[in-house]
Automatic annotation (TrEMBL):
Taxonomy of the source species: Eukaryota, Viridiplantae, Streptophyta, Embryophyta, Tracheophyta
GO terms of biological process kind: SCF-dependent proteasomal ubiquitin-dependent protein catabolic process
SUPFAM superfamilies reported in the protein's UniProt record: RNI-like (SSF52047)
Protein name, UniProt field: F-box/LRR-repeat protein 15-like leucin rich repeat domain-containing protein
Species in which this protein is naturally found: Glycine max
Domain F-box/LRR-repeat protein 15-like leucin rich repeat: residue ranges: 69-265, 330-475
Superkingdom of this protein's organism: Eukaryota
GO cellular component, one term: SCF ubiquitin ligase complex
A Pfam family the protein falls into: DUF7885
Length: 538
């Protein structure tokens, strides 16, 4: 008698590990799918453990000891949700992952000292990246411990206010392979320490010196770095025009320069800093100098310039118009809170820079629908438009936005947009972020237009848009299943009915509902456990 075929055989047993790992790679964007797979059977549970290389535990007790035993090949460890990491924890994980750990983020951890850092640096010989930001109590002893990680390539010490030139010197001497260094708010580091970094670490690509008490003395060494691409000098008030004028060095590799809040630097200093930097692509001058024709002439030297940020600057009419005459074709322009932006110069700017992809005109209170019409006629490739509090743009102005069908991000917070405007915007089917906070003219009808066409929407902000009710929210939740962040704060017309509709959004991560008439107990019953919920009325 013929035996029936064995139906208990697992067909996945015939697949190679490499093929199974490829399947797991395709599940990285969906943590629920990955978790479901690992829980389906013992073999998949073991397979997921050997395949995982990154870890972000929600609580410290999840990390020890079972996690250390289960996951043997962790290379990237994010501990930003674990503020209680201490020396013992660092020692344990450094022993468990001594041959695999390459990157660790300790920027939100508070209890470890130089002892734990020393164990980490000595045991994890493959460590190339460490983030120790927001630890003002760390001293030069911690910097000396870090220096034992001789293969380090990326180091972030933001707000480590206790570290001085001595500690930075230890790092510079031993960690010669450093490529990315962040010293933001390390206010005890001076020209001497920065100079040592520049002299000893020749491979540096990115350097953040924001808020340091440095002068132009250390810039001579910095500009001689052959591979330097990104230089951030935000709020370095010790650097002035007259000192920069004597600089002889030039950095041909520089691609990004951030001089925001450097109020003692003008167009002369910028010209000195960027001498020979023909590869410059991004220039950030936020809250610094006035936008004049002299500045525009300086920018003519950069044929590859693609991004300029002039937010919170004082712009002259002639200066802003001269920006339109740049030889380079800009892709990103930030004029947020820039005094002097008008219907006279903005249309000229967008007509000459037709390849613009990102434009920020937040709080440009003097522009009208004429500028929006010119913008949407000229810049059809635009993907991001921020125009919060453009108070003189009438309802008709928002009808033009529908022309920009590649738009992915739109911020019209605190404007006169109405349902007809939303109907026009619904033609932008690639929208992923839409901010409609304090838009008092929009109703459920307008939101339904968005819901019916913008299925890729991930971020929806309806903060204080008081005419939106459950009807509009339900339509948005059903039409936009990819929603990840929703803000319905201070909207008295939204109830538990809206929450029930959000239960269909499997990717929802954050729901902001302060001041909304929803009940916290119902929230926990309806939504997924992974959803973060801001405070509700109870």
């Amino acid at each position: 008698m013929e035996q029936p075929p064995d139906t208990t055989t697992n067909l996945f047993d015939h697949l190679s590990k490499e093929l199974l790992y490829t399947i797991l790679d395709h599940l990285n964007d969906d943590p629920f799918a990955r978790k479901s797979l690992s829980q389906s059977c013992k073999s998949f549970h073991a397979l997921e453990a050997t395949h995982r290389t990154s870890l972000k535990p929600r609580r410290l007790e999840f990390l020890l000891p079972k996690t250390l035993h289960r996951y043997r090949s962790i290379s990237h460890l994010d501990l930003t949700l674990c503020p209680c990491v201490d020396d013992a924890t660092l020692k344990s994980l450094s022993l468990a992952w001594h041959s695999s750990l390459r990157s660790i983020d300790l920027s939100k951890s508070r209890l470890f000292s130089h002892v734990g850092l020393s164990a980490l640096a000595v045991n994890c010989t493959c460590l190339v990246e460490i983030d120790l930001s927001n630890r003002p109590d760390l001293t030069d002893l911690a910097a000396k411990a870090i220096a034992e990680a001789v293969n380090l390539e990326r180091l972030c010490l933001g707000r480590c206010k206790g570290i001085t030139d001595l500690g930075i010197g230890c790092v510079a001497v031993r960690c010669s392979r450093l490529r990315h260094v962040g010293l933001r708010w390390c206010i005890r580091v001076t020209d001497f320490g920065v100079g040592l970094i520049a002299i000893k670490c020749k491979e540096i690509r990115s350097l953040d010196l924001s808020y340091l008490p440095i002068t132009e003395k250390c810039l001579h060494h910095i500009l001689q770095l052959e591979h330097l691409e990104d230089l951030v000098l935000e709020h370095c008030l010790g650097i002035e025009d007259h000192g920069l004028a004597t600089l002889q060095a030039s950095c041909k590799s520089m691609k990004m320069l951030n001089l925001s809040k450097c109020q003692n630097i003008g167009h002369i200093g910028i010209a000195s800093l960027t001498s020979g930097a023909h590869n410059l692509e991004k220039l950030i001058l936020s809250s610094s100098l006035s936008v004049t024709t002299d500045l525009a002439k300086c920018l003519q030297s950069f044929p590859r310039l693609r991004s300029v940020k002039l937010d919170s600057c004082l712009g002259t009419k002639s200066g802003l118009k001269a920006i339109g005459n740049l030889g380079a074709s800009l892709k990103e322009l930030n004029l947020s809170k820039c005094v002097g932006v008008t219907d006279e110069n903005l249309p000229f700017l967008v007509q000459t820079h037709k390849d613009l992809e990102k434009l920020d005109i937040t709080c440009c209170h003097t522009i009208t629908h004429a500028s929006i019409s010119s913008l949407t006629n000229s810049c059809l490739r635009i993907t991001s438009l921020r125009m919060e509090s453009c108070s003189l743009v009438s309802r008709e102005g928002f009808l033009f936005i529908g022309r920009c069908q590649l738009l992915e991000e739109l911020d019209v917070t605190d404007t006169e947009i109405d349902d007809q405007g939303l109907q026009s915007i619904s033609r932008c089917t690639k929208l992923s972020c839409l901010k409609l906070g304090i838009c008092l003219m929009i109703t459920d009808d307008g939101l339904k237009h968005i819901a019916s066409s913008c299925s890729k929407l991930k971020h929806l902000d309806l903060y204080r848009s008081s005419r939106i009710t459950d009807e509009g929210i339900v339509a948005a939740a059903l039409g936009c299943p990819s929603l990840e962040v929703v803000n319905i704060a201070y909207n008295n017309n939204i109830t538990d009915t809206s929450l029930e509709s959000f239960s269909k959004c499997q990717k929802l991560e954050l729901l902001k509902s302060e001041g909304a008439l929803v009940f916290h107990q119902r929230v926990s019953q309806i939504l997924l456990p992974s959803v973060s919920i801001s405070r509700c009325w109870t």
